[in-house]
Amino acid sequence: MANSPSAADTPDTARPRRYVAATVVRAGDVPDTGTTSLSPWDVAGGDRRAEAVMGLVLPGLRTHWNDDPEPGDDFRSRLWIWDDALTSWATVDYDGRRLDTFHVRQHGPRRLWDEVAAAWSRWTGAGRPAFDAFGLDVGVGVDVDGTQTVWCGDPDGPTWPIPPG
């Protein structure tokens, strides 16, 4: 997962608070809602190893933190996740009180937070291996629909399908 826009394009201090919402949320979007116990900081909070692995196994996703809510917002900190095609988005909110439950909203054909949580679970279940433990099947490992496979340890270890991009 990558932060967007890049620091070279727009410094963090110049980003409008509503930049992401205005970019990815369309009029009429009605998100599914739920909760999660997976902390958004675990997957996108500065742990470079976690962020590198999530970016490898979930290509084409972007993230942005909103830590500056406006009056009336029901969160203290919000992680935005969206796909490069701008067809799906998710938010994970910290309410400022509880660190064991976070509010999730998702919209679009992909359930991005569900994808992130599944990738996180597989990675932590494999012992949180470093980035250099991963490989990619190209050619023989490519399915008919163009999906490639990232593997950990060896091609018979834990795998993550990479959608065509």
Give a description of the structure.
The chain has 165 residues and is of the alpha+beta class. The protein has helices at 19-24, 40-44, 48-57, 112-125, and strands at 2-3, 32-36, 61-66, 77-83, 89-94, 102-107, 134-137, 148-152, 159-162. The strands form two sheets. A six-stranded mixed sheet has the order 1-3-4-5-6-2. The chain has a three-stranded antiparallel sheet with strand order 7-8-9, with no helix packed on it. A hairpin with a 5-residue loop joins β4 (77-83) and β5. The longest helix has 14 residues, at 112-125. The protein is globular. The relative contact order is 0.16.
Task: Present the secondary structure layout.
Elements: E1 2-3, H1 19-24, E2 32-36, H2 40-44, H3 48-57, E3 61-66, E4 77-83, E5 89-94, E6 102-107, H4 112-125, E7 134-137, E8 148-152, E9 159-162
Parallel strand pairs: 1-3
Antiparallel strand pairs: 2-6, 3-4, 4-5, 5-6, 7-8, 8-9
Helix pairs in contact: 3-4
